[in-house]
Amino acid sequence: MRQELSIDPKRTALLLIDLQEEQRHDPYYVVAGLDSVLTNAGRLLDAARANGMRVIHAAYKRDFRVVPPRPFEPLTSDGRPTFSDVTSPLVEICSEVAPRAGETVLTKNDASAFCTGELEPLLREAAMEWLIVAGVWTEACVASSVRDATQRGIRVLLVKDACGSGTVAMHQTGILNLANRLNGGAVANAETTCRLIAGAPVEVWMHQKPVPILFGYDDAARHYDLL
Length: 227
Fold this sequence. Notes:
CATH class: Alpha Beta
Mean pLDDT: 97
Number of domains: 1
Distance between the termini: 9 Å
Helix content: 25-40%
Low-confidence stretches: none
Number of strands: 8
Radius of gyration: 17 Å
Oligomer: single chain
CATH architecture: 3-Layer(aba) Sandwich
């Protein structure tokens, strides 16, 4: 399942998903190991900037003026969003990975970074082949974005240790489930990905057959480590 990969930085973009203060401070949405996730995402960001790679930030800001409450969407007692409320200061992107001038920032009202319709044309116009993905939550917004990219014929490099979720188990099984269906894509860690961004050929895990990882409660962590 491991294979050598090289990429063209000019045809690759880095997508950072929902790395917002909410994930650090809101007790309902704290991400396990967020400091490590931010450190690794920051390493990717530094490498991308140093090598002239396009950087895209996506931030979840739930705004009922733009998209009204959906059926069964949880609300607060006064009818506001229970997460990522656009009026909350916690929707700001964490300072460790804050956007710089000239970097694209997408504000979204749903899980996928593709939901607003802005991301796909941006990638098409720049003839992007690969999308390096990091962010939170692994099984939710990251997963939705990865699946939407794959369905659009965009290859995804999923950086496993620059993603996170509410628990380690949720994150690891989220990565494994994505890896099982990551047609055309790859999984790597941040260190390997930074070398890849810098132009070195590296060895990554690549999907080669349908549902290649059959994992259980007892061995999910081992399979995750092998990616």
